[in-house]
Design goal:
about 325 residues; mainly beta; Porin; globular; disordered N terminus
């Protein structure tokens, strides 16, 4: 009965918030139900247009754990010939004292694309957005219960008609443990076979923490053919404290029979900044006035506390 009361409370709360923010031209309201080690209902209002900014509001939890609340603000500013600059800020908290704060920015300076992100938290990815713990592109994970900070600066430079270089140095900090330095680079060759791309990869990290360093390099192939799913596969070789190990990453996405889908899988036993074995699958389809979604996540053999299995269903509609 407690579960039903909490779900009913969040549903009513979402309806009231939607009505309240209607004057701010609310665009999308969504409801979700997640299960990893406990049941977590959530309600979210997205794309609330308030002047030059867009606001997202989220309320979740309260069944077997703390109640969570979060908000995100996005803005875009045009500087004419210099391009457009986008900025996103996010804050999440719960009644047990967990928090995650973050800001991201992206823009361009002449022919160089620039981006930056800064986060401060006492929880790992997935604490406030369950599926983020299983995504291949999540920020680094930390061991321990201290406050962690992460700063990344990225640049993208076109070296020729078909050659693009991306480089992202990063700095991480975990209280009581120390500082770590990371670096990622991607050298992309476009249209190496018809519309397919090839990428040379390099990644390295020193932690923070003893035994958290690794270095890896490899190659990625991106299949981009009309009428076929979007497919990406990468083969890597990495070295960590455990020795030299091979690794693979793959992703697929597309639409079939009225359903959209996305799948990612990673097996990187040398990786020390995220669960080395993880996968996620998302399927969505139109239903009535909105869209129904189902997401599955899996993470094996990790010491970051990421649950081995996640199941999340969601429904969102515009008004």
């Amino acid at each position: 009965m407690t579960h039903l009361r909490t779900i009913r409370y969040l549903w009513v709360t979402g309806t009231v918030l939607a009505a309240f923010f209607g004057t701010a031209r609310a665009q999308t309201v969504g409801f979700a139900l997640s299960y990893d080690e406990a049941l977590e209902p959530a309600v979210q209002l997205r794309d609330l247009n308030a002047g030059p900014t867009t606001l997202d509001v989220r309320l979740a939890g309260g069944v077997a754990g703390p109640l969570e609340a979060g908000a995100a603000v996005r803005s875009r500013t045009s500087f004419g010939p210099l391009g457009t600059f986008s900025l996103t800020g996010r804050a999440d908290v719960d009644t047990a004292g967990a928090f995650a704060l973050g800001v991201e920015g992206a823009g361009a300076l002449a022919a160089t694309g620039l981006d930056a992100s800064l986060s401060l938290s006492n929880r790992n990815p997935g604490a406030f957005a369950p599926t983020a713990a299983y995504a291949l592109g999540s920020r680094p994970f930390f061991t321990g219960d201290g406050v962690n900070a992460y700063l990344a600066l990225g640049a993208t430079q076109r070296l020729g008609r078909t050659l693009i270089l991306e480089a992202t140095p990063s700095l991480s900090y975990l209280s009581g443990t120390g500082v770590g330095v990371g670096f990622e680079s991607r050298l992309q060759g476009r249209r190496i076979v018809e519309s397919d791309n090839g990428v040379a990869l390099l990644e390295a990290s020193t932690g923070p923490g003893s035994g958290r360093g690794f270095v890896a390099g490899g190659a990625e192939y991106q299949l981009n053919r009309r009428g076929l799913p979007s497919l990406t596969g990468a083969v890597l070789l990495g070295r960590s404290e455990a020795g030299i190990r091979p690794g693979v990453r793959a992703s697929a996405g597309g639409e079939v029979g009225g359903f959209s889908y996305r799948a990612e899988v990673s097996a990187e036993p040398y990786r020390r900044t995220a669960p080395p074995y993880r996968a996620n699958v998302a399927v969505g389809t139109a239903l009535g006035p909105g869209a129904l979604g189902l997401e599955l996540g899996a993470a094996l053999k990790n010491d970051f506390g990421v649950p081995p299995v996640l199941i999340r269903s969601s429904y969102a509609f515009r008004f």
